[in-house]
């Protein structure tokens, strides 16, 4: 094996640790399952499996160092008992089930939520980088760096961009660890005002940047199985988050069962408690108009709220949204693959590893975009759509 893809357990998104802390304090006995899916149906992983296996073995040997633990402890929302837990923590290979059939990767994670939650991002980063090593090993780096510089120049040359803020969200589908670091370093150097930070904790620590993130879809999904009534699952998840962070990390994710269903649960109590919302599927303009109207109906000035966009953004689309809505809210942007795997020689890899069950019960993400729904149980998916009054034909 060449140098390992993952060399630190911090080489992941911040929200994995913030969710993990909540699980430790509130649902330490929950059991979950995650499933891998490649949205690029033509990808062939047959020649990558052996290397992926070796990378997983290395991943499961990693421990957080005292310096890394001290860094986490300086984040004011991370609590001392969680640091003590992490001092003993190691990922367990027994929870991963990996095979390959006719080039298609079959990857499943099963085990305690507390002990499996950190697998997702590093596993996806491993799969992405190993696949790129095998299938796109020699990109034209001069051309790739020119494309990055063009994106930076687009921001530098944009008029009235002083309040434009974006972050790196590109760990899970990056071309490589080294390229993500180069991208983030250049963004921080050339756009010190507009570049707000990175979701990657390892890069944030080593480069002195702000770590960015709150919660992910799996957190909202798990409550479909953790509570007494499915219809109350979103409200329960939001309450659990408020209980854990008491006003910190206050960006709510809206598309687990769709924006309309989310807003029905996002009442005045939550709208005042949370700093804003994150859009990760659907039409961003339509989503924004719904969010603005919702705040206004409750006599909340949306200019006091942050709306975060993170769905397949490019620098062009982020700047367009910023110009359209900067006077009505506080727009912010998380840009992923467009920064960390925009390599001319291939189409960006599009892979996910999503929670599919919790405590033996199916859970699902309906999304606001066709094709993003993911569930192992079609019957449950239909039931979830019925309970939340979602047209299943619009998300399948």
From TrEMBL:
<protein>
    <recommendedName>
        <fullName>Nicotinate phosphoribosyltransferase</fullName>
        <ecNumber>6.3.4.21</ecNumber>
    </recommendedName>
</protein>
<feature type="domain" description="Nicotinate phosphoribosyltransferase N-terminal">
    <location>
        <begin position="10"/>
        <end position="128"/>
    </location>
</feature>
<dbReference type="InterPro" id="IPR036068">
    <property type="entry name" value="Nicotinate_pribotase-like_C"/>
</dbReference>
<dbReference type="GO" id="GO:0016757">
    <property type="term" value="F:glycosyltransferase activity"/>
</dbReference>
<dbReference type="InterPro" id="IPR007229">
    <property type="entry name" value="Nic_PRibTrfase-Fam"/>
</dbReference>
<comment type="pathway">
    <text>Cofactor biosynthesis; NAD(+) biosynthesis; nicotinate D-ribonucleotide from nicotinate: step 1/1.</text>
</comment>
<dbReference type="GO" id="GO:0034355">
    <property type="term" value="P:NAD+ biosynthetic process via the salvage pathway"/>
</dbReference>
<comment type="function">
    <text>Catalyzes the synthesis of beta-nicotinate D-ribonucleotide from nicotinate and 5-phospho-D-ribose 1-phosphate at the expense of ATP.</text>
</comment>
<dbReference type="InterPro" id="IPR041525">
    <property type="entry name" value="N/Namide_PRibTrfase"/>
</dbReference>
<dbReference type="GO" id="GO:0004516">
    <property type="term" value="F:nicotinate phosphoribosyltransferase activity"/>
</dbReference>
<keyword id="KW-0662">Pyridine nucleotide biosynthesis</keyword>
<keyword id="KW-0597">Phosphoprotein</keyword>
<dbReference type="InterPro" id="IPR006406">
    <property type="entry name" value="Nic_PRibTrfase"/>
</dbReference>
<feature type="modified residue" description="Phosphohistidine; by autocatalysis">
    <location>
        <position position="217"/>
    </location>
</feature>
<dbReference type="InterPro" id="IPR040727">
    <property type="entry name" value="NAPRTase_N"/>
</dbReference>
<dbReference type="Pfam" id="PF17767">
    <property type="entry name" value="NAPRTase_N"/>
</dbReference>
<keyword id="KW-0436">Ligase</keyword>
<dbReference type="GO" id="GO:0005829">
    <property type="term" value="C:cytosol"/>
</dbReference>
<keyword id="KW-0808">Transferase</keyword>
<dbReference type="Pfam" id="PF04095">
    <property type="entry name" value="NAPRTase"/>
</dbReference>
<keyword id="KW-0328">Glycosyltransferase</keyword>
<feature type="domain" description="Nicotinate/nicotinamide phosphoribosyltransferase">
    <location>
        <begin position="164"/>
        <end position="390"/>
    </location>
</feature>
<comment type="similarity">
    <text>Belongs to the NAPRTase family.</text>
</comment>
